[in-house]
Amino acid sequence: MSSGAGSESYVLVVTRKKDSTADHVLRRMADRSVPFLRLNAEDFRMVEIALRFPNVCDSMLSIENTRVAISKIRGVWLRRFVKPKAPQIQELEARDFAESEMDFSLRWLVDLLSNYCPVLDCEARVLEGRNKFDQLAIAETFGLQIPSTLVTNDPAIAKGFVEQYKAAVIKSVAGYGRQAERGFYTVYTNFVTKEILNRFESIRMAPVCLQEYIEKKFELRVTVVGQRVFGCRIDSQNTQKAKIDWRRYDSTTPHSVYNIDQELSNRLIAIMKHYGIRFASFDLIVTLDGRTVFLEMNPATQFLWIEELTGMPITDAIIDEILTKKGGEGDATEQGRSGSRVDAASVSAS
């Protein structure tokens, strides 16, 4: 799927076939007359490439009926990587070889393009930024409070940690989830109950993340795109289902625009700059006594439901950031300064 033709410059969107968020953003690009090329990673076998070295600018990329020089790619949105497929090859080893070669070629192509145009965001930086251990280790150096946390596969140490606190929660280390026929399945955060405590011997098989439970007034989902900060207040404590983990939210869980003060905005943007990324969301809680506590950062984040429930123009911010001229190497903030800062205070909820 593509938009535009001829000598125009294009935004390259790398995603997969089933991606409603990408569908939405590309419709908005079309509304704004932004020419784009959609590259579904699993169908990379249908893309023609001709990469020339050292004259990289003479390289060509063909997707469906659109043939474009690498020099005409003005920006890349790395929405989702999935492994390319070669179902037409019957012999298993040959198919594995072809899929591996395509996988490396696609990933290296995006890395190559990052030398010539903005990429939102480079895979290596996203992977580094997803490291929850590192996030928790550095959060306090950026002036953010965190819950007391233990990651362990030792049942005795785990039990000792739980006994220190009035209440503790257990969560997966990396946010496990999988797509199945009947929908998407994930592991939610739960209280450590007596039943769970009695099953702690099982954690020898895989580490778990334990945290002190901090009572919440409400939760924040803060989406940051370059210098633009969009705060969403999630009143998870209003519904029993979402009290411990707001991801269990339903239509009765209030979401509203929330102004993020300049000090907190600067701290969140500074963390993103540390990792060299320009698009992420942050999960925070506001305690009963008004403190803001950092839980995690999510690079290359999901955002569409926040936009739909609050009316904040996150999609437009993403498009603007993709089109922003490439800034200094590794600078996650300078690249966004040509656009006006948009915060929650200047956006009206729908």
Which terms would index this structure?
D-amino Acid Aminotransferase, Chain A, domain 1, disordered C terminus, 9 helices, alpha+beta, five-stranded mixed sheet, 350 residues, globular, 27% helix, 3 domains, Dna Ligase, domain 1
Approximate strand percentage: 25-35%
Going by CATH, what is the homologous superfamily of the largest domain?
ATP-grasp fold, B domain
Tell how many strands the DSSP assignment holds: 19
Instruction: Give the class-level CATH name of the largest domain.
Output: Alpha Beta
Q: State the domain count.
A: 3
Fold and architecture overview:
The protein folds into three domains: about 1-115, Rossmann fold, CATH 3.40.50; about 150-210, Dna Ligase, domain 1; about 215-345, D-amino Acid Aminotransferase, Chain A, domain 1, CATH 3.30.470. The strands form five sheets. It has a five-stranded mixed sheet with strand order 1-3-2-7-8, with helices on one face. A five-stranded antiparallel sheet has the order 17-16-15-18-19, sandwiched between helices. The chain is of the alpha+beta class and about 350 residues long. It contains nine helices and 19 strands. It has helices at about 20-30, 90-115, 125-130, 130-140, 155-165, 195, 260-275, 305-310, 315-325, and strands at about 1-5, 10-15, 35-40, 50, 60-65, 65-70, 75-80, 120, 150, 170, 175-180, 185, 190, 210, 215-225, 230-235, 255, 280-285, 290-300. The longest helix is centred in the N-terminal third of the chain and has 22 residues, at about 90-115.
